[in-house]
Specification:
Elements (H helix, E strand, L loop, with lengths): L2 E4 L2 H7 L32 E4 L2 E7 L4 E5 L2 E8 L8 H21 L3 E8 L4 H13 L6 E5 L3 H6 L6 H5 L1 H5 L9 H4 L3 E2 L2 E2 L2 E2 L5 E6 H6 L11 H14 L4 E4 L8 H13 L6 E2 L4 E3 L3 H16 L5 H4 L5 H11 L3 E7 L1 H6 L12 H4 E4 L1 E2 L12 E5 L2 E5 L6 H11 L2 H7 L12 H7 L4 H10 L3 E3 L6 H16 L5 H16 L4 E2 L2
Parallel strand pairs: 5-6, 5-7, 12-15, 14-21, 18-20
Antiparallel strand pairs: 1-6, 2-3, 3-4, 7-19, 8-9, 10-19, 11-15, 11-16, 13-14, 17-18
Helix pairs in contact: 10-11, 10-20, 11-20, 11-21, 20-21
Amino acid sequence: MAITIQRSKSVRALLGLGVVGAIIVAGVPAVSAAAVTVGSVCPKLGAASKAGTIAVVCKDGGAQNVWTDKKVYPVSIQANAVVGGKNSAQAQWLAQYVIPNFTLEEAAKGKQVDVNFISSGADDASYKSQLALDLGAKKGPDVVNIDGFWVSEFADAGYIKPLNDVVGAKAVAAWSGWKQIPATINQVMTYNNKLYGVPAGTDGRIIYFNKTLFAKAGLPTNWQPTSWADILTTAATLKTKLPDVTPFQLNAGKDMGEATAMQGFLNFIAGTGSLIYDNKTGKWLGNTKSVRDMLNFYNDVYNVKKVGNTDWQAMAGGTGRDASFSAFANGKLAMMIEGDYEWRSVINPLTGNFKMADRDTAVGFAKIPSQTAGSGVNKQNFVSYSGGSGYIVNANSPQKGTAWELVQFLNDKGPLTASMAIGGSIRISNRTDVNNVTLATDPCLKFVFTQAIPNTFFRPANSHYNAVSTLLQQATTDVVNGGMTAAAAAAKYETALAAEVGAGNISSN
């Protein structure tokens, strides 16, 4: 259930802001309207006047007293984050830093804002469903934090509109922050060549491995596989030397949801030299050698070499993924493919849901290899996938201008830098000027930013993607359960794919 967090009374008192309007100090005389402008310096707190037709009052603007519009501009922001729970650092930042500081910055410009943070700690699917209902009913908060891969689906459904259409192309272009955001990161919030919001950052997928377990098994602690065969050989050694440890976690099946795609098959398909969707031809990858090879790798992991835990893949509601996180944190899982979210949040020794006390000394990082050297897309030796979220302005917001000002503030250098100090964990931001400073002190995020992201790909910005991902999740389920060969699962997948996208929009070989 969503919880609304409002500014505390202490913050309101500090800023001199009333709940429904400005409070004028009794006995303070009105001031002549001559030369009064909103945001200009005023003589005495509580003094009243007019700036043209706008009623103003003298307020504390931080560095100086300013003439402030008596009108209050309410604006709400929603994120799937809750203090003390899911994405706690983000929730703390929004509630404790963004709201009071944005309020003060607006006051310094002569504008009173009243910001509500609508907090949620729901699972991603539930959050997405509720948000779709709200936006579909032309309701919802003014500013919304959404996952980048929802953009195409929400756009096609009419739930969101391009940023230029919502707040105006001139206002969008005027923001100086765009100069610090690489074009590749803007892909997170782009669909059909139109930008729907400001990306909040990005991430990358790597192989995490436990150096302590590797040393016990006689394996190098600076391990870097160069092929799928290297992964399987290493996993087999771990199985022999450490029989009480699960060698390798490769997310599989429908119960893992989108994690099966981002931490699994998308990377391995890219490692064969293909992408799941070809933007040039407009065709989806069907029953191809790339898909069969990817499914054969899953078969090797779970059925032939038996170096993965099939039980985790069948646990419902994300509990299997949590089981793998717990095992890795407790030294019972040697290797797993995950995003940098695992390092900065899940196994964070201070704030993680599965705290790993020896994380900083025991965990090593490796790039995900292509099937063989040079076999990846663009003849890459290594691959990765990136995602991320972003902030959109609700097209139905009655406060679009204020909402856009809030989105800009969220993505300015100061607020983003401040967010890194909350929760004991830095992140890969959307801004180069922030990353150059913050990532230098974190070995994992520096590795992801310098080693994985240069080799990365993004999920296709196509409204069919979610359905196609689900079909491939089912294909991995069929293989991991031992019910089908890779070839049979690929054929079944293509039949369902044709029903989804049309037979003419599929490539097969």
